[in-house]
Amino acid sequence: MADKKDYYESLGVSKTATDAEIKSAFRKLAKKYHPDNKETGDEAKFKEIGEAYSVLSDKQKRAQYDQFGHAAFQNGGGGFSGGTGGFSGFGFDDIDLGDLFNMFGGGFGGGSSRGGATSKSKGRDIETNIEISFEDAVYGCEKTLKISLDEPCSECSGKGGKGEKTCSTCAGRGRVVSQQRTMFGVFQTETVCPDCHGRGVTYETTCSACRGRGITEKIKEINLRVPRGVESGDTLRLSGKGNAGANGGARGDIYINFKVKEHEIFRRDGRDIYVDIPLTLTEAILGCEKEVPTIHGTIVTKIPAGTQNLEKFRFKGKGVDDEKTHRLGDEYGIVKVIIPDKLTKEQKELIKSLSETTLDNSKEFKTYYKYTK
Q1: What are the start-end ranges of the E strands in 155-213?
Q2: CA-wise closest residue to 242 among 142, 121, 122
Q3: CA distances to 52, 63, 197, 310 from 9, in Å
Q4: What is the arithmetic mean of pLDDT over 305-316?
C-alpha cells in the first residue's frame, strides 16, 4: 500500500477541494485517459483516477481516507474493484456518462434512431459582397443580385434518382449502429448510413442531371432592399434565401457585405456628414452669405466676418437618417480659405495695403511672438 499514489494527487486537487472541484477534475481526466481515446488513452491511469474518485466523491470514505490514508481500505473497506471488467461502487451516480463518452462517438446503452428516411439538413449559407454608391447608402435603394444557388433538381424532384426502394443497409432508418466493447460494457454508436446518406431509400437509377445529389446549381435573381444609412463593413442577412437543404431541409441564409463608394464632396462619419466650404479671403475677412450643399438639398448660411480657416459650422439634422437606429445625424461645414496663386497688379497693391493691418491684439500672434523673442 505504500506504493499507492495519493488520491488527491491522482485527481490533481488539494485536500480542501470541494465536491464540485473533485467532480470537475475527474470528468476532465476521465475524458483524457479513457481507453477509447486514441491520442491520450491510458487504461492504467484511467483505473487510478477512477479509484481515487470512488473514494473522494463519497463523504464517509473520504473522511476515512483523510484520517487513515490507504490503510482505511486494506481489509475490504474500499469501494474499488480493479478488474478490467468494470468498477464496483465507482460513485458514478452523479456523473453524466452520456456526456462523458460523447467525445468517443458513442451513446450509453442501446441508443435510438435519430435519422430515418426523412433526415433533413439545412442548406449552406452564402456570403457575397456588393459595392453601392454614396447616395444609395444614404437614401436606401432597391437592388437585384444574381447569385449561384443550390436548387432542388427539376429532373428527379430533388430525390437524386428514379426507382425508389428501401435501403437494405439501414432498413430504411437512414442510420446504422455499430457496437464497441469497453470496460464499462457494450456501447453503441449511430452514424449516417453510408449507402443512402441518411435518406433511408436508394434508387435503381441515379439522376444524370444532379449525379444523385438531388440539387443542381442555378443562377437566381435576388431582390434586395438596401436600408437607409448602411456603411462600409455592414452586413445584411437574408434569412432563408440561401442554398436549398438536403432532403427538403430548410434553406440557408445569404450574408451581404457592403462597400460604399466615396463621394466627390461629402465625407461621412457614422450618421454625420462633412463638407468643405471654400471661401475667398474677402469672404472670410468681411463675412458673407454662402450656399452650402447637404444631402437633403442646398441651404444658405451666414458666414460671420473674421471667420478663420478650418472653422467648423454645424447644420443640425442635415446628416444621415439612419434606418437602423432611427436617429438623424448632422452635417458639419469646414471652412477652407482659398489663397489665390495669381493676382493682378491692382490686386497685389490691395493685398500689400492689408500688411499695414495690426494684429497685436490677436491671441494667436501674441502667443507665437512670445517664443520668437
Answers
A1: 161-166, 175-182, 185-192, 201-206
A2: 122
A3: 9, 16, 47, 71
A4: 96
Residues 6+ apart with CB under 8 A from 4: 70
Same domain, 250 and 328: no
**What is the CATH classification number for the domain harbouring 53?**
1.10.287.110
Beta bridge partners of 205: 162
CA gap 153, 214 in Å, rounded: 5
Range of the domain at 283: 267-347
Amino acid at site 123: G
Q: Compute the distance between CA of residue 234 and CA of residue 136 in angstroms, rounded to an integer.
A: 14
CA distances from 161 to 155, 188, 251 (A): 9, 32, 21
Q: Give per-residue pLDDT as tens, 166-196.
A: 999 998 888 888 877 665 566 677 888 888 8
Which grid cell is 241? 434565401
Distance, CA of 222 to CA of 238 (rounded, Å): 10
Closest of 240, 243, 256, 234 to residue 324, by C-alpha: 234
Report d(CA 313, CA 311) in Å as an integer.
7
pTM for this one? 0.57
Q: What pLDDT is stored for residue 269 in this prediction?
A: 96
